[in-house]
């Protein structure tokens, strides 16, 4: 494998891995953000549930008409606390002082609560409350209504979230966050006017999420890829990355194959004019001088040469047959302009795709050739192809003939036509296929059929061109058979316009300036 290909393939491999890393990170990140938002919403829901529990407890207590901290009052308060899971303490007020609580009973010195933090739905809230109980300090929120208050414990409210520690709950009071619970310092007040704010980092994801009323907010920080430390996950990731690299190699190969495929090259070649006409001289057998040429398509692009046997079927499959012919004819007319007139016109023989005759595209040639010098005589070579629709072709070829175009049957003797079909065509020339000419000098069986072809041509009043003449012995034999014109490597292969000009200068009465 050449070094450049190896480098390109390695690059494709690593690009595949990099794309995969990005994709995995993106998917992971999106999933994590959704999980974190859901989790935040669940925390806020649990806090709301606690508040509702407190509201209903306060409503029930205030329905009683206790005015002092009687045994019955304390009993009622304790009974209610017992029923409500998240309530850790209930206090009873005389004026604005607490005179008894479920935890301590009647207070020796009544306590006065400070100014509440916020009033919501007629309830007063104190946040960040720390209540000392016999089994430790309770962090929570105090809610007061009427003559009672309740202390809600975050620990019990958020018991479902205990496995998840890296979060902070704050209350926004006059837009300033007040720490309520969890890790101090995670919430940075980034939400501004939005309900949530996501920060994606290489090492961690952070989400700040506020409840619908933008009053309680949760900030969650999650380290990235902690799962990576787990062996199976690492193995799966490595497998995915290698798979991505290998997939990228396949994609590279596929694109490379597509970009370098003959079909793609031909498509591009048609756009970028990579098809060029070459000219193979048609020679008068007696004088050895060129009387015309057959235009043969040649293709060359930066990747090299493609031969007609390869590109002709593909051009046809691409439906670009007329496009190619038109390009070539236009170029040929341009090439042959400046031809100095000899006594006779020069024949320019052009191969036409049968389908372009069937669909009448070929008639477009009349526009192309109408301004060409009259010393170029156009001949269209058609093959006796099964694709050719004889009935349709007859009508179209007649139009061409009327416009001065000659019709030539190419590869004659190898095709599908029968005599009656041929007679209905306005034929000017029969080109005897090379397979008849091969070994004519040794009297090969196939070559013995040539006189029959000559007699058919005579019946059709058509000229004959012998194709594929490769040596002087063949020339001599063909002369004996009264064949006048020939084409083949004995005279010349198909030439570029530059070489063809030289050829004409040495071997014809024409001159290309
Ligand atoms: N519709 C179009 N068909 C085209 C066009 N250009 C070419 N073709 C057809 O492709 C087939 C192959 O053509 P090519 O490789 O160019 O071969 C031609 C000659 O180079 C070859 N030839 C000529 N003399 C000799 C010879 O002495 N020996 C030898 N071994 N080969 C020789 O024969 C081909 C010409 O064939 P033909 O057209 O039948 O006269 C071929 O079928 C082309 O027709 C195009 O522009 N349009």
Describe the structure.
With 513 residues, this protein is an alpha+beta fold. The chain has 2 domains: 224 residues, no CATH class; 227 residues, EAL domain (TIM Barrel, Alpha-Beta Barrel), CATH 3.20.20. Helices cover 40% and strands 28% of the residues. The protein contains 15 helices and 23 strands. The strands form 4 sheets. An 8-stranded mixed beta barrel has the order 13-14-17-18-19-20-21-22, surrounded by 5 helices. It has a 7-stranded antiparallel beta sheet with strand order 3-2-1-7-6-5-4. A hairpin with a 3-residue loop joins strand 10 and strand 11. The longest helix is centred in the N-terminal third of the chain and has 61 residues. The radius of gyration is 48 Å and the shape is rod-shaped. It binds ligand LFPHGCPZ. Ligand LFPHGCPZ binds next to strand 14, helix 6 and strand 19.
Cα-atom radius of gyration? 48 Å
| Class by SSE composition | alpha+beta
Strand order of the largest sheet: 13-14-17-18-19-20-21-22
What small molecules accompany the polymer chains? ligand LFPHGCPZ
Membrane topology: Multi-pass membrane protein
Transmembrane segments: 12-33, 231-255
EC number: 3.1.4.52
Protein name: cyclic-guanylate-specific phosphodiesterase
Task: Describe this structure in a few short sentences.
By secondary structure, the protein is of the alpha+beta class. It has helices at residues 3-63, 71-83, 154-157, 231-260, 262-271, 308-317, 321-336, 354-358, 365-369, 390-402, 419-423, 434-437, 450-459, 472-480, 497-507; strands at residues 87-94, 97-101, 105-112, 118-120, 123-133, 136-145, 148-153, 167-173, 176-182, 196-200, 204-210, 216-223, 275-284, 290-301, 304-306, 339-340, 346-351, 376-383, 406-412, 429-432, 463-466, 485-486, 511-512.
